[in-house]
Amino acid sequence: MHVFGSSELLEDVHQKDLCIGCGGCVNLCPYFKNHRGKTTMLFPCTLAEGRCNAYCPKVEVNLDELSLSLWNKPYDGSPLGVYKEILAARSGKKMAGGAYQAGGTVSALITFALKTKRIDVAVLTDRKELVPVPKLVTQPEDVVKCAGSKFMASPTLAALNQGVKEGYGRIGVVGTPCQVMSATQMRCNPLNTEDFHDPVELMVGLFCTWAVDTRGLIPLLSECVDSACIMGMDMPPPPSEIMIINTGESNVEIPLDRIRPLIPKACSICPDMTSEWADVSVGVVEGKSDWNTLIVRTDKGADLVNAARKAGYLVTDKMPEENLQHLCVAAAGKKKRALSAAKEKGLLNTQQEGQRAALRIREDVVEKILAEDVEEVCRT
Amino acid sequence: MSYLADDRKNETYLLMGNEAIARGALEAGVSVAAGYPGTPSSEIIETLAEASNQRKLYVEWSVNEKVAMEVAAAASFAGLRSLCVMKQNGVNVGSDFLLHLAGSGTRGGLVLVHCDDPGALSSANEGESRHFARLVEIPLLEPGDFQEAKDMIKWAFALSEEIKSLVMVRSVTRLSHASGNVTFGQLPENDSKAYFRHGGTFLDPLEGPLISLPVAYKHGQQQEKLRQAVDRFEDSSFNIYSGPEFPELLIVTSSACHLYSKEAINLLGVEDRVGLLKLGTTWPLPPKLMRKQMGRSDKILVVEEVIPFLEENVKILVAELAPEIGIKTFFGKKEGTLPKVGELNPDLVLDAVSKILQIDYEPAPQAYIKRAGELAAVAAPGRDLIFCPGCPHRASFWSIHNILQMDGRDGFVCGDIGCYSLAMLPTGFGTLKTLHAMGSGTGLASGFGKLGRFGMDQPVLAVCGDSTFFHAVLPALVNAVHHKSNITLVVLDNSGTAMTGFQSHPGLPVDAAGKEAPSIDISGVCESIGATVKVCDPFKLEDTQSTLLNLLEKETGVKVLILRQICALSPEKKSKKMYDMKIDETTCLGENCGCNRLCTRIFKCPGLIWGKEEKVAKIDDVICTGCGVCASICPSGAIIKKEVA
What we know:
heterodimer, A: 2 domains, 3-stranded antiparallel sheet, 15 strands, B: Rossmann fold, 6-stranded parallel sheet, about 35% helix
């Protein structure tokens, strides 16, 4: 992995409008701050190499290096990444109800992990008024307060960096694919720091097709509903073309045509729908609104899921084949669109002198992904 | 007790030009003096304010220069001698009144002293206020040394009283702030009584109402007064010629430039070739004197600073006199013998004279100049213009800069006049984006804040100091409120007119003489006109930043944030530390990722030093004021503050 400094980060990410505001660079130093979803640099820093650049998921991300480090094999571009099994899941009877987006699987896993001291602290995303804000949670009962999808790009990783600063060594992180990608780069010790210790004990990834710009969405929401009354939001899967705002009394629908212009440019080059670098990844299940799709990727993830199930925090079921097929097609489609967009913008495997790539993936893998028929790939 | 307000007739003292001016006013029996602080003029009112504790004299720091002129004029209308004092920009502020005052005329002697700042050593401009004399048709005097500074003031009062007109006296930085010997005259007993006579007719200058109507009649009177002044100028002892009877070159000059010219003539040893006409009465020029002097030389060099005011006036006069004295060759600013901007000095005059007389003169050997330049570049430490250690403005602008960056809508701050003008430089993180006259920051903001309908969505901020707030911000703020302009004004309230030396202003509970006075509460004033007002301590960075962000994002219309913290140099705070500061060298991240010397590279309080060898930050205990702000910015908590017991 090639690491540069903050001036390259500004040039390659901020000035190209590719910052997704994941928070990966926030709280590492006094220079980067995120306010209302937007990350800005307060003052210039002159260092030639910095963690801000090394952790950023939008500049010089080498997927081969990440894959070798995590899975001991090169990145092959498979639609859902590396996994052991895919299940349907929801929170078990030990979990009290909450404002879950679907089945409450994430809340259940994190609550269980905190309760059983598998992790000391969890990095979650809370909401202040309508703005998503990062939060460090140590008490299991506080986890459900952060339940529910925020749909807006949020600086969650600022809390991870804060947790590391505060000395936590076994941190659980819940993040979207960009956040998981950033944190995974951090876990690979890109600056070769001596006595490096990976502070992330558990990585729970979320499914994400795209996020919505916080500063764009809030005025739109306020225009459509009294923003103080918003209890939750949902975006039903295609072919539905609406965002649903739950105000407690009623549901207000906002056509996606009004939402789409608010999708950050950075999402268009994201090749990951299912948080491929996590221990477990969680999303919704089409047609079963109170269940989640749960992708178990690592031994640690499998162990957590089994233990949580045994302890009554989690209930799992088999995932219907048809749903798996849909999930795969959606993930493969996102990957293909992202690589094509990144290539077109000159952000994929950039070779020109003095210019940097957003993503680096072996050329044969790129060719394979760009050439594949997504339906075909997912049938095999 | 000030010796300046003591009689001490015929004693000689080393006086600063401004003290000499004040002494002159005292010797003239001045009863009222008013001004607004501004370098290089401030010591005149300060000296008189001190004297007011010994003598029958009323002195005030007025809210602004226009009001100062009005306060002084009232005394004159009531038959008293009065003085008003300001720096060059102040005359612009008062100029509207000045024009009418010239028309109405005066009664007791009224003298306006304005101190110009050639080279803008302490100003945001190199303004020239001599031209106001020509513009509003009143006499102008320029003292050429320290004794004259005192004597000329006395004479100006007499002249003003004789012709019933305001008289302007111009000083410059190098006269006001330099010192020379001055022999004292007698101090009169002041038994003046104030009474405003207004029962006469409009046309009666002594008993009638004081107004500039009927205009044509009063304007004619004004010109007659100027003619009377010129008569007195013809044989004034302030106009001095020295040199040969028929000089090869005649230097015409005034003010401090007369000293530079003298020095140049002396250094070149051309006393027998060059004549020096030092004028003390520079507007209107006395034609008979000028005819006599101009007629004896073919080459004329006019030496003066800022705009070629004297040069143009001399040229007009010489053109009128051409049938009698012939055509002359002029040198000066117009044809480029002397620089058109900046201060003059003896070397520049020397260079001009040696060129005109074709004298081969080298002020210093070229090799020396080159070597000195090289050494200065490598050996002299860089000294930026910076806020003092512990200055509240550094903390204020840190917060303003940071919240504007975080807000991310490319907001900007309209600046104003005060120490905080420095915030356009790195010491204020380059936060100010406009800088004009007193109060203009808020006026500009009021305008920017109405451009929303043209697509402007940048947050608009303005800053002003507490003194500036009263001086000229109020009308602009009222304008902004009335027109629902969406702006945030940050009042940097450091409890004094700090830049010019802690003069009092209407927000403070003392007056110019240090006596108790009612103070006017800025937040109350702002609230009463309908602004949303918050008050914070700028040293509390987090509180200041969240308050400011909330104002910026949530409130519309006019928001005022008052950042209240006393200036680090103020007499009540100086040398009193709130905290003892120290650095934990083991946790200081230094140049590493995670800090990269935030405190010594960006925050840059002079109380923090970068230990080049140890690679850690250090506290300079000698100059650290113990404000504790740097402890809040250190990302690793390595700067530790301990409350002073």
